[in-house]
Model the fold of this input.
Amino acid sequence: MKATFHEAANCDGARTGRVDTPRGSFNTPCFMPVGTRGAVRHLSSVDLVELGAEVVLANTYHLMLRPGAEVVRDLGGLRGFTGWQGLSLTDSGGYQIFSLQPRVDDEGAEFRSTYDGSTHRLTPEGAAAVQADLGADIQMVLDVCPALPSTEVILRKVVERTAEWAARGRQAFLDHPDAHQRQCQFGIVQGGTDVVLRTESAQRTVEVGFDGYAIGGLSVGETRDEMLDPVSAVTAVLPGDQPRYFMGLGDPAGLVEVVGRGVDMFDCVLPTRHARHGTILTSAGRLNLRNARFAADDDPLDPGFPASPAAAWSRGYLRHLLMTDEPTGRRLLSLHNLAWLFDFVDRLRASITEGRFEQFRAETLEVWG
Done:
């Protein structure tokens, strides 16, 4: 079954709607919090339900090493293992693996575990099998994620290998006894910031025929302006009746820009990572709560967002928790940042439905651009 996209509204290229998967549906645009090792840092599955999360991402690389994909499978897959009853997505492990500079050949990648130094090999077929064991509703095909900037020669090789691995990973998924009946599999488009290579990669990925499509290898250090033309080139090629996913994006300015180019889904560790380091998301932009000026501040984190789960406590108190390394502070800020970003996406969705997306985009860029 394809992850079918049903468009509800379109405004200046930004679209909102619903994505159907074998086990349920979710609304778009959709932000997915990252539960790297089966949990979003400092939060539980109950927290995620209360925050209104619809899809949560888990990390294939980490879970295949600890506790092992077979353990997760035997404990009921991600749903039974984590207690999260909503929808889930697993990345292929490609980004984490390639950030470790593995030995790569046409067959796959060989890398060392960050936990115990043991050697492992991951192939497109292996990535599909591991994710079948993990049991997410959406699994990603193994791709090659290059550093940016990279030479044209390197990007050409990335596009070729990503296309070859896409075909192999897709066949392995379809050949699995039951994965293709209970999961969706997304292909990934690469090509760096080269518009021509991005277009070619998108075309070749669509030719393989996936259930949805992702844009990978961007938001890794290039400027936003460098990112946007490749995104437009890719979404012009991707099917309109299937979901489009930008991997690794979570800042408000970036979100409105890619949604304006037809993207439906995104994930990022940004809101919870910011929270752990004392940075909060607010209607006035980012604030670093560790700054001394907040020590005696009696205001809530964001007076413009009274629905924050942390609204009952002052900036001064929450700063005190951070400065004394009290874990409660990191938890409350994580709850706030995720709630704030979910609210932002709700308002973004409403702006599309109500035909005022460009106004919302301009207001967002004025604060966050």
